[in-house]
TrEMBL record:
This is ferroxidase. It comes from the Eukaryota. Coiled coil: none annotated. InterPro entries: Frataxin (IPR017789), Frataxin/CyaY (IPR002908), Frataxin/CyaY_sf (IPR036524), Frataxin_CS (IPR020895). Its EC number is 1.16.3.1. It is found in: Mitochondrion.
Length: 175
């Protein structure tokens, strides 16, 4: 019989424990009985969603999305380049229609404690909150959500874009 929450891949069994950071337990079955030798491999864990409680995540995520909503509403209203644009926010989903430039969708993913971005320029990305930079980071390229949005908006508008008033902007806010 296998231990609880054990995943079998070939002859190896894996269990992920979140109690002491990220931990991968590799188990090998030594006999048909429940004797299992386990080797524990620890992986470094950064200050990401592991440290965020669900209430704290919801608060940070809501503040982020609400401040992005305000930013995009002002941006669409004040720029003729974005004529026909529309910004809507509800139920954790921010939709930014930029006319001929495409549609951005930024939404909360509570089970994963992430913010997901769908961009017409850079495609889909999943952002985790990093306490050390006080912002949302995409782990594959180490770029903050606000940095990416600022650069894409600057490219669309052909002028610098200031997102320093947005909450939880991380490095884009000078951190």
């Amino acid at each position: 019989m296998l231990p609880r929450r054990c995943l079998r891949l070939g002859r190896l069994f894996y269990n992920v424990s979140r109690q002491s950071g990220r931990q991968l337990v590799c188990c090998r079955r030594q006999s048909q009985r429940t004797r299992i030798a386990a080797q524990t491999l620890n992986f470094s864990s950064s200050n990401t969603d592991q440290d965020l409680g669900s209430v704290e995540f919801e608060k940070i995520c809501s503040s982020t999305l609400e401040s992005l909503h305000e930013f995009f509403e002002i941006l669409v209203e004040e720029n003729a380049e974005l004529k026909g644009g529309d910004v809507t926010y509800g139920d954790g989903v921010l939709t930014v229609k930029l006319g001929s430039h495409g549609t951005y969708v930024i939404n909360r993913q509570s089970p994963n404690r992430q913010i997901w971005l769908s961009s017409p320029k850079s495609g889909p990305k999943r952002y985790d909150f990093e306490k050390r930079i006080n912002g949302w980071i995409y782990k594959r390229d180490n770029v903050c959500l606000h940095e990416l949005l600022r650069s894409e908006m600057a490219e669309i508008l052909k002028m610098p874009v200031d997102m320093s008033n947005c909450e939880y902007g991380g490095r884009s806010n000078g951190l």
